[in-house]
UniProtKB/TrEMBL annotation:
In the C-terminal section; belongs to the PPC synthetase family. In the N-terminal section; belongs to the HFCD (homo-oligomeric flavin containing Cys decarboxylase) superfamily. Its cofactor is FMN; Mg(2+). Keywords: Decarboxylase, Flavoprotein, FMN, Ligase, Lyase, Magnesium, Metal-binding, Multifunctional enzyme. Its EC number is 4.1.1.36, 6.3.2.5. The chain holds residues 185 to 402 of 402 of the full protein. One of its GO terms (biological process) is pantothenate catabolic process. This is Coenzyme A biosynthesis bifunctional protein CoaBC. Residues 3-214 form the DNA/pantothenate metabolism flavoprotein C-terminal domain. GO terms for molecular function: FMN binding; metal ion binding; phosphopantothenate--cysteine ligase activity; phosphopantothenoylcysteine decarboxylase activity. It catalyses: N-[(R)-4-phosphopantothenoyl]-L-cysteine + H(+) = (R)-4'-phosphopantetheine + CO2; (R)-4'-phosphopantothenate + L-cysteine + CTP = N-[(R)-4-phosphopantothenoyl]-L-cysteine + CMP + diphosphate + H(+). The keyword Methyltransferase does not apply. The gene is coaBC. It comes from Croceitalea dokdonensis DOKDO 023. CTP binds at D97, K107, F142, K156, K160.
Length: 218
């Protein structure tokens, strides 16, 4: 099998950033794309660390270690602990870009009718960190863009020092969050571009792995 002996790390799903004991900031990611990539990698012979934010999904495969986390910081720590040991890493998670600067110890009570302002701070960029740390690893990111997709994905690829990036366009219907289908474009670090049709996320996972395998073998 093409991924025999390879260790793969995949981040998946959203993150939840606590506001107080009962509230959080989140997003609509379901984790489907990351879980499909993990299953495909395992079927292709890899040993997989699947680091997933809060998701209803589950997976049972003897080659997949599922590590569940909640926040961007926890996801960062889980990735950091394992990154040096893997051959390939894919950032498929929709990591929060900001988190509340302070987590209230008690549930925040409504006071007057005045607006409430939450101060936010940046989270760590887990993928950019992998791009910085990488030695032999092949690192792949995702880009979800609402406009100028190709241009922004290429900028992201270079800025985060990735080997490839998978663009999902918000301009394509049936693609992205909450859908079982996706339409992606694979772009490698030499800026070779391959566009795929809209298809089931499980098939998209096969396409992405075919592109990666072709490049790590070369
Ligand atoms: O910069 P942007 O968020 O658009 O980049 C998206 C890519 O970066 C995705 O692969 C996502 O998993 C990753 N990312 C990350 N940590 C963050 C933000 C994004 O790993 N804090």
């Amino acid at each position: 099998l093409p991924l025999n002996g390879k260790k793969v790390l995949i981040t998946a799903g959203p993150t939840h950033e606590a506001i107080d004991p009962v509230r959080y900031l989140g997003n609509k990611s379901t984790g489907t794309m990351g879980f499909e990539l993990a299953k495909k990698a395992a079927d292709l012979g890899a040993q997989v660390f699947l680091i997933a934010g809060p998701t209803a999904l589950t997976v049972a495969h003897h080659s997949i270690s599922l590590i569940r986390v909640t926040s961007a910081e926890e996801m960062y720590q889980a990735v950091h602990q394992r990154f040096a040991t893997v051959n390939i890493a894919i950032g498929a998670a929709a990591v929060a870009d900001y988190r509340p600067k302070e987590i209230a110890v008690q549930k925040i009570k409504k006071k007057s009718d005045a607006p409430l302002t939450l101060a936010l701070e940046r989270t760590k960029d887990i993928l950019a960190d992998m791009g910085k740390q990488k030695v032999h690893q092949y690192v792949v990111g995702f880009a979800l863009e609402s406009q100028d997709g190709l241009k922004n994905a290429k900028i992201k690829l270079q800025k985060k020092n990735l080997d490839a990036i998978v663009l999902n366009s918000l301009e394509d219907s049936g693609a992205g969050f909450g859908s079982n289908t996706n339409k992606v474009t694979f772009i490698d670090k030499n800026l070779v571009v391959k566009a795929f049709n809209l298809k089931a996320k499980s098939e998209v996972a096969s396409d992405i792995w075919a592109e990666i395998i072709q490049r790590i073998d070369a």
